[in-house]
Amino acid sequence: MATDGSSPVVIGKDGLDALIATLTGRGRTVIGPTVRDGAIVLAEISGGGELPYGRGVELEAGTYRLRERQDGAAFAHSAGPQSWKTFLHPPRVREWSAERTPDGDLVVTEDDTVAPSYAFLGVRPCDLRAIAIQDRVLTGGRYTDPSYQGRRERAFLVAVECTEPGATCFCVSMGTGPATGPGYDLALTEVVDADGHRFLVRAGSEEGASVLAELPQRAADPATATAARERVAQAADRMGRSMPLVDLQTLMRETLTAERWDDVAARCLTCGNCTMVCPTCFCTSTEDVTDLTGDHAERWRHWESCFDLDFSHLPTGPVRESPRSRYRQWATHKLGTWFDQFGSSGCVGCGRCIVWCPVGIDITEEAHALDRERAARPPDGTGPS
Amino acid sequence: MTPLQRGFLGALPPGHRDRLAAFARDVSIPAGTRIFEEGGSADRFWIIRSGGAALDVHVPGRRPAVVETLGEGDLLGWSWLFEPYRWHLGARARSTLLAAEFDAGRVRAACAQDPAFGLAVTHGVAAVIARRLAATRARLLDLYAPPGTDTGGTAG
Amino acid sequence: MTAPAAAPPRSYRVIARVPEAPDTATIVLEPVRSALPPFAPGQFAMVYAFGVGDIPLSVSGIDGDRLTHTVRNVGAISAALHGLEAGATVGVRGPFGTGWELPSAAGRDLLVVAGGIGLAPLRPLVRAALAAPPEYGRPNVLIGSRTPRDLLYVPETRAWGRSARVLVTVDRPDDRWNGEVGVVTTLLDRADFDPTTAAAFICGPEPMIRATAAELVHRGTDPDRIAVSLERTMHCAIGHCGHCQLGPLLLCRDGPVVTWTAARALLLVREL
Predict the structure, then answer these.
(1) Cβ atoms < 10 Å from Cβ of C204
(2) Which structural domains are found in chain C, ordered by start?
């Protein structure tokens, strides 16, 4: 079924407009980047005019600012405050409802809300990997999450390769970008130069090829293909951040009692912003509600953060009481124990946690510090693991 | 293995074990017998072969409060090794007790005379005390208590 | 995808309730319509009190389609379940988690060590082991409790004494208690087993598990043959909510029963 490798084509801005129209025409809700409230957010768009043409972002730890771009590019911005999990793994989901019948029985009804059919326009390679990681967590185990699976199966993914990494990006370290990996229906590479503003497009699925066939296009010329390749290659050399060149899973396992955790705990506010913006963080809590009669109950789940004190609650109290232990849980899960649990890293190097941390804590800086502390330790001082 | 080999005696180096064992005489203590009283002169000690003993504390107005029970292989009594040689707790036979009984005065004299033997015996008794201290601390945690009763924790 | 979708709870009716201790009761559940797949000793269910929520409860008895759970009243949901009378309905999901690996203990002395409510998940294991005695070596059941009033399943544990060495100790005796007084680890001295080859099964508060397993390892027991059952918060029980993490483990999926080899280093890290 994969048509990846078939001849790429070139579309213009009109092709992008046609893409949105075609996807909408096929009954999909198109979600893409658009400017709102001083940020590039992900929201439903009805036309190419809503895309953030000519807008870029300036990123630093704890900093996010829009800026004008002279080249008018639509996708030359890096990750914003949201990720696609907002749509695939929504912040609040009703899982089922229950009725208590007059004879005392319990009748449970699964939530039968029909999953929306989304088309995501502008999925970054790092975020495409993030979706694959959530797939593994929520549908790759012994049980699948019906809400996620329904949305995921119906989603059409238009990846856009990264040509403009931000100062907080480190996808090269995590092996997730800036070139796109598999899993897309269509993949775009934006090129703006003297020859015009255009997009090199490849199909990655049958439906992608079918959609692509409906767009105004021309065969890819060598100059555009080369320019696209070069821009992605150059992006790889312009990463603002990097992880230490060590096995991060081992690093996390061997530094559980490092002093560095005290250092970061002195800065961390345990606000949980990093978990909310992280495209792979999946944790939820359940919530049970009843109506006024008391005979109708609903089971909801909502996003939860491991920085919340109640997250590790036991009858005797929270297991992770100190901020130190909660930051350590998040970082070691993301970079280390995710491998044990789900077979891959939980970090894709998108840099959102760095940007949206109110005190500018930088997971790459913390990893470097842990690596330095481990290296400085006498050989017999290996951690408890 | 016999109880004497695997308990307190078993932990001693063989030479010292044999020497200590030479001080022993076999006794049978009927169930219910008060073996010693809190504050009494600690002039003997026992290693239990079979049966059980209860260590207790006298509390006015109620039956003696049992703080720990001892059984097969256990050392019954260590106050004899330390001044002022007075029992810290009382002891009662919970069932018919077969035990090796030692004259504390003679063992102390032998310890004083032969420091290597004294060290071995003291080390062995200290190990017993350390284990009982660890066990007592574990009980101080009151691990099976209802959550929140004394930890202030919340419950879900 | 071949994995089944996460299922909502099924309706079960409380057909009996047995008070066990001042804050603990055993409830027996029977499916109202279709039963869940069979549970194994050591596995747990998510039991839902209508409108209040669900909590993980190990099975303390398995009898065909009937599930038995022993509930200690320690919070809002457990209080609701603890207070249910016969005739009430609950929702049940499961079976979840790893169970006790009894077959791997064939031919070995069995050492079951329970602290407090930790006896609940061990009861079906003891029942299974005693139902097939020739397959195992000498069975020992060591039980630690706070007070004599907190002892669970007293008539049954007494009956086990006919075919197993059952030793019971309490932390705080009352005036009528004639049994042992002390921590459960002291009972190891009176158990009848070869520590170098025995298979051990431990459940109780974490410090009790640590002390018991460490003592067994000291006596020569292989940490791979020491199984312990651990507790962490659980919401979904299917590996999707993240609450039950213990380092690399998702205890709803990789636990609650794990070997001491896997648990030891993790339990030594504070606040992991």
Answers:
(1) 26
(2) 10-96 (2.40.30.10), 103-268 (3.40.50.80)
* Residue B93 domain-assigned (yes or no): yes
The answer to whether A329 contacts chain C (CB < 8 Å) is: yes
The answer to whether the beta carbons of residues C235 and A300 sit under 8 Å apart is no
- Which chains touch C (3+ CB pairs under 8 A)? A, B
User: Which residue among C89, C90, C269 sits closest to A256, beta carbon to beta carbon?
Assistant: C269
Q: Are A195 and A206 a contacting pair, CB within 8 Å?
A: no
Q: Which pLDDT does position B146 carry in this prediction? A: 84
Per-residue model confidence as pLDDT tens digits over C179-191: 999 999 999 988 9
Structure tokens at C165: 């060495």
Which DSSP string do the residues of C240-262 spell out, in sequence order?
SS-TTEETTEEHHHH-BEEEHHH
Helix (H) or strand (E) holding A212: helix A206-213
Asked if residue A2 has pLDDT above 50, the reply is no
- Domain segments of chain A as ranges: 9-236, 248-381
Contact A306 C249 (CB under 8 A): no
pLDDT digits (tens, 9 = 90+) for C210-250: 999 999 999 999 999 999 999 999 999 999 999 999 999 99
Quote the minimal CA–CA distance from C35 to chain A in Å: 14
**Please, where are the H alpha helices in C62-205?**
76-82, 119-131, 154-160
Q: List, in sequence order, every residue forming a beta bridge with B124; answer none if it has no partner.
A: none
Helix (H, G, I), strand (E, B) or coil at A222: helix
Instruction: Find out whether C85 and C94 touch, Cβ atoms under 8 Å.
Output: no
CATH number at residue B80: 2.60.120.10
What ipTM did this prediction achieve? 0.93
Structure tokens at B41: 């002169």
Please give the tally of structural domains in chain B.
Answer: 1
Residue pair B56/B65 in contact (Cβ under 8 Å)? The answer is yes
Partners of residue A336 in chain C, C-beta under 8 Å: 248
Give the dihedral sign, CA A271/A273/A278/A280.
Answer: positive
Tokens 């481990």 belong to: A374
Chain A touching partners, 3 or more CB pairs below 8 A: B, C
Is B25 in a helix, a strand, or coil?
strand
The range of the structural domain enclosing residue B54 comes to 3-140
Low-confidence ranges of chain B (pLDDT < 50): 1, 151-156
Task: List the alpha helices (DSSP H) in A346-385.
Answer: 352-355, 363-376
Q: What are A284's strand-pairing partners?
A: A303
- Helix or strand or coil: residue A324? helix
Q: Could you tell me if B90 and B34 are in contact, meaning their C-beta atoms sit under 8 angstroms apart?
A: yes
Please tell me the distance from the alpha carbon of residue B105 to that of residue B119, in angstroms, as a whole number: 16
At residue B100, the 3 state secondary structure works out as strand
Q: Which amino acid is at B156?
A: G
| Whether residue A3 has pLDDT greater than 70 | no
Sign of CA dihedral B118, B121, B125, B131: positive
Strand-strand pairing, A313-314 and A317-318: antiparallel
Write phi, then psi, for A130 (nearest 5 degrees). -60, -40
Q: Which of A147, A144, A143, A166 is nearest to A155 (CA)?
A: A147
Report if residue B77 sits inside a domain.
yes
CB B87 within 8 A of CB B79: yes
Q: How confident is the model at residue A1 (pLDDT cuts 50, 70, 90)?
A: very low
Asked if residue A179 lies in contact with residue A4, where contact means CB atoms within 8 angstroms, the answer is no
B121 lies in a domain?
yes
C246 - beta bridge partners? C249
Q: Which residues, numbered 207 to 266 in chain C, qualify as contacts with chain A under a Cβ-Cβ cut-off of 8 Å? A: 231-233, 235-236, 238-243, 245, 247-250, 253, 265-266
Residue B151 CA: distances (Å) to CA of A18, A338, B145, B146, C269: 64, 33, 10, 9, 21
B130 in any annotated domain = yes
pLDDT of residue B152: 35
Binary contact (C175, B63; C-beta < 8 A): yes
